[in-house]
Structure formats: structure tokens, C-alpha cells
Design goal:
Strands 1-2 form a two-stranded antiparallel sheet. It is mainly alpha-helical.
Length: 158
């Protein structure tokens, strides 16, 4: 096996290890997050991360309709409709209509949904700062390479 092939194999092994560790980290983080969230906003119903991200999507874009939510989150309209129905029933979101379009239904956050959105946003900001601190050890040229690498990897898995 050539040196180049050995390096590629090692990169692949490291990538797989990274994916496993990231999955475990996100699972732990989601568990802690949902547990804290339960106490903070006194959830009467369970909520999963996709539902929470739907709340975040609505909070960032409101008013927004099912089609736009589905596109932004890369979900089917049917799945998005089920999620928004659950969020409506739980009192996290409300339906509205625009004054110039009474046919289309749009979603906005309720006061409780806004609390949830703010807490979720705070967590994302902390994670972003954690990533920025991690990346501080790399030079500008290394950061350019990392940016290209992750862009290419995202394309690989589309």
C-alpha cells in the first residue's frame, strides 16, 4: 500500500471516529438540553430536536408557511405539517393569515414558543463560540483549507 493510500485510509478512519464521537456528543447535549428545557419552560408535552428546530425556524422567519419551513429544514411538507400540528396543540406556535392573503396559513411563535426559541438560540450561540475557540489555533490558510474541505464534504453527502 502506498503512503498516499495509507494516509487516505487513516483520514477515513479518523472521519468515522469523528462522526461517532459527534453523534454521542450531540446525543448527550440533546439530553441535557431537553432536561434543562423541561425545567425552564415547564414543558407539558415532550418535544424532540426536530420539533425544537422547527420552532427555531419559525422564530427566525416568522411569519412562515409550511412550504417554506419544509424547504428551509429539508423536510417533506407532510412531515412539516405533522410537526406544526403538534406544536400548535402544545401551544408553542399559532396560525395567522396575512391581510392580503386569507388563503395561506402562516405560523408565528406564541409567548411560550418565544421562550423556547430564545433558549435554543442561546445554546446555539454557545456552541458557535465553542467552535470559534477551537478554530483559533489554526492559521488563515489552514482555515481556508478547512472551509473548502467541509464544503466539499457537504457536497459529497448530498
Amino acid at each position: 500500500m502506498s503512503t498516499n493510500e495509507i494516509i487516505k485510509a487513516t483520514i477515513h478512519e479518523n472521519f468515522i471516529q469523528f462522526l461517532h464521537q459527534k453523534e454521542q456528543y450531540e446525543s448527550r447535549l440533546a439530553g441535557v438540553f431537553l432536561e434543562r428545557l423541561q425545567k425552564l419552560v415547564e414543558l407539558g408535552v415532550s418535544i424532540n430536536m426536530t420539533e425544537l428546530h422547527t420552532i427555531a425556524c419559525i422564530g427566525e422567519q416568522e411569519p412562515i408557511n409550511v412550504t417554506s419551513i419544509a424547504e428551509k429544514m429539508d423536510l417533506s411538507k407532510g412531515n412539516t405539517s405533522k410537526i406544526t400540528t403538534k406544536l400548535l396543540a402544545a401551544g408553542w406556535v399559532r396560525k395567522t393569515q396575512l391581510s392580503d392573503n386569507k388563503k395561506e396559513v402562516y405560523f408565528r411563535l406564541t409567548a411560550a414558543g418565544k421562550k423556547l426559541f430564545a433558549y435554543h438560540d442561546e445554546l446555539h450561540n454557545k456552541e458557535q463560540m465553542r467552535m470559534y475557540e477551537f478554530l483559533d489555533k489554526y492559521s488563515e490558510s489552514e482555515l481556508d483549507f478547512i472551509k473548502r474541505l467541509f464544503g466539499d464534504m457537504a457536497d459529497l453527502y448530498r
